[in-house]
Design brief:
The chain contains eleven helices and eleven strands. It has a three-stranded antiparallel sheet with strand order 5-6-7. A two-stranded antiparallel sheet has the order 1-2. The protein has helices at 19-32, 40-44, 50-61, 72-85, 89-94, 101-118, 138-169, 202-210, 217-227, 284-295, 297-307; strands at residues 121-122, 127-128, 181-183, 189-191, 248-249, 252-258, 264-269, 318-319, 322-324, 327-329, 336-337. The protein starts with 18 loop residues before the first helix and ends in a 9-residue tail after the last strand. The protein is mainly alpha-helical and 346 residues long. The protein binds a DNA duplex (21 and 21 nucleotides) through residues 1-6, 14-17, 36-38, 50-52, 54-56, 58-60, 87-90, 101-103, 105-107, 109-111. This is Transcription factor MYB106-like.
DNA sequence: AAAATGCACAACCGCGGAGGA
DNA sequence: GTCCTCCGCGGTTGTGCATTT
């Protein structure tokens, strides 16, 4: 009746694994595979239960584990998937093949959850929390609450749309976030553009704004000015591109274009942290590449496209662009798509 | 300099589903 | 159909290092 009794727990070692135990476990799995965890400790001459061996292998010893800092893209993916899947860490880990569910869970609990909370976003519902510590007039408060309410509605619609997109993408899941990996020039692994990209979350934009150690105004100016030192850029930069408040919106390193009445038209926001400040190329293709990576403009554009049938009013449209007579022309910039300052979704 | 606190990460624990006997 | 074990998952705890007080 039933299977044989599970491993005898008496005398089994617990706690941190030693290098010697790791070596035994590794060589055993290399030799026999990991078919039966229960039988493995005996084969490997380990005083551990099979469960402990399995955990050690899955969370630490597996050769395909990517260790180290989570990239911005990974953070985005985790937040997006958590909004859709909740605390189903193994399901989330399936979209980040080189990360373990334990690692993602730890990262969420130790960082992402706290930061979202700090931003006033409920990490479980992914919706803004309405609090009573708003300083300002009652009019300001009602505007604030109305804004949050609008954001919540927008977020709800967005989540529904995302769920549809995710369902649609399931057929292509083998391509999703599982693209071939390339070594970049810094020998860091980067994930190539996925077949299908989840849309941007507005909470992620807020996330960017709440991040600490954001690049300074001078960082952005130096990027642009260094990159265009020979392109006479400064003379073609709109008057808003200076150290005034227009460059930063709510402490976000953003560059804003305004119309002739000084009303905001569109904003680009640096999504990298820290914002890179070196090696901006001056030739157009390289610039496009660097600038696109720097501000993640393609991502914003893709997001806008994905959302265009949902809440198009929240986007001001796109600008296309290029150099003209060696001058950077905002009106022709190709990827610039985002919400304006003061938009309800911001 | 020492204690307190925060943080990141590894590991354990308990539960529930799947499936064999 | 029932019992039992294995496996995987999510919650939680433990530990060591770094930072702050």
């Amino acid at each position: 009746m039933g299977r044989s009794k599970c491993c005898d727990k008496q005398g089994l070692k617990k706690g941190p694994w030693t290098p010697e135990e790791d070596r035994k476990l590794l060589s055993c799995i290399e030799e026999h595979g990991c078919g039966s965890w229960r039988a493995l400790p005996a084969k490997a001459d380990l005083q551990r239960c099979g469960k402990s061996c399995r955990l050690r292998w899955i969370n630490y010893l597996r050769p395909d584990i990517k260790r180290g800092k989570f990239s911005l893209q990974e953070e985005r993916t985790i937040i997006q998937l958590h909004a859709l899947l909740g605390n189903r860490w193994s399901a989330i880990a399936a979209y980040l093949p080189s990360r373990t569910d334990n690692e993602i869970k730890n990262y969420w609990n130790s960082r992402l959850k706290k930061r979202l909370t700090k931003m006033g976003i409920d990490p479980m519902t992914h919706k803004p929390k309405i609090t009573n510590n708003i300083n300002g007039s009652s009019n300001d408060q009602s505007k604030y609450v109305a804004n949050l309410s609008h954001m919540a509605e927008w977020e709800s619609a967005r989540l529904e749309a995302e769920a549809r997109l995710v369902r649609r993408s399931k057929d292509h899941s083998k391509y999703l976030f599982n693209s071939t990996r390339n070594n970049n020039k810094n020998n860091n692994y980067v994930v190539s553009q996925p077949y299908y990209q989840l849309p941007c979350l507005d909470i992620l934009k807020a996330w960017q704004r709440a991040s600490t150690k954001l690049p300074t105004t001078n960082d952005i100016r130096s990027i642009l000015l260094d990159g265009f030192a020979n392109k006479n850029l400064e003379s073609s930069i709109p008057s808003t591109l200076n150290s005034s408040g227009n460059l930063f919106v709510n402490n976000v390193p953003s560059i804003t274009k305004v119309d002739d009445q000084n009303l905001p038209l569109c904003t680009i926001t640096c999504l990298e942290n820290p914002c890179p400040t070196k090696d901006v190329q001056t030739d157009l293709p390289s610039f496009r590449q660097e600038f696109s990576e720097l501000f993640d403009l393609e991502y914003i554009q893709n997001s806008a496209n994905n959302f265009s049938g949902i809440q198009v009013d929240n986007f001001m449209g796109s600008c296309s662009g290029d150099f003209e007579d060696n001058k950077f022309n905002w009106n022709n910039f190709p990827y610039l798509v985002t919400s304006p300052i003061g938009s309800p979704v911001f």
